[in-house]
Amino acid sequence: MTTTAAPATTAPQPPRPIRLFLVDDHPLVRDGLRARLGAMPNLEIVGEAGSGAEALVLLDTLRCDLMLVDVGMKDMNGIDLAALVLQRDQQPTHPAPHIVMLSMYDNPEYVQKAMQVGARGYVLKDAPAAEIVAAIEAVSAGGTFLSPAVSKKLFRNQAPRPLLTPRESEILTALGRGESSKQIARDLSLSVRTVEAHRQSIKRRLGIEGQAELIKYAVEHAREFGQG
């Protein structure tokens, strides 16, 4: 009697770590970030720069998934650097990295400018390490992230609208009218799953946690977001 060996099974490969590039003109800040983030098992710090100009030079050869960029650098502010990085011609196999701004300032004007040039996150430098990690993970997964303190200040200044895409504004307006995800999907010719994904994105962008809080916000701001 002959027996056949069971086919060998291939162990699943662990996910590739997020490749992070640090840009800050204060060496002590970079040291602190390395100490706080270097222990993350799914993160690899592949480079760092002390200025915007140095970062642009390194990006010619450095491949990274995400950049953590200081807003208030002396030679070139981080928002201008983000704009340059995201406007550069990228090879199809090496798309532009996502960018999270790291700042001492919770000024709504800075936040709006950062998001308008294409940054996907804005975190305060004095935020807990867990918040910076959450921003990296959310943005790497294709989402957005604002420090809660930043979101609250945006609300007080009544300036959240620039942070939403036109589609998200449509959905928020519909939520403010009391429509369900199923109704919104039918009216906008979308799938319910797509509408739910937009709802999650809206919550992340506006720093809102629960569905009830989202509906309350939508009702209070429906007129604003419904304007042309």
Structural class: alpha/beta
Which oligomeric state applies? single chain
What global shape is seen? globular
> What's the β-strand tally?
6
In sequence order, what are the helices and strands, one letter per element?
EHEHEHEHEHEHHHHH
Gyration radius over CA = 21 Å
Q: Count of helices?
A: 10
Portion in beta strands: 5-15%
Main sheet? Answer: 6 strands, parallel
Approximately how much helix is present in the residues? 40-55%
Q: Looking across the biggest beta sheet, what order are the strands in?
A: 2-1-3-4-5-6
End-to-end Cα distance: 79 Å
Mean pLDDT: 84
| Low-confidence region ranges | 158-162
How would you explain this protein's 3D organization?
The protein has a 6-stranded parallel β-sheet with strand order 2-1-3-4-5-6, sandwiched between helices. It contains 10 helices and 6 strands. Mean pLDDT is 84; it is low at 158-162. The longest helix has 16 residues, at 211-226. It is an alpha/beta fold and 228 residues long. Helix content is 48%, strand content 13%.
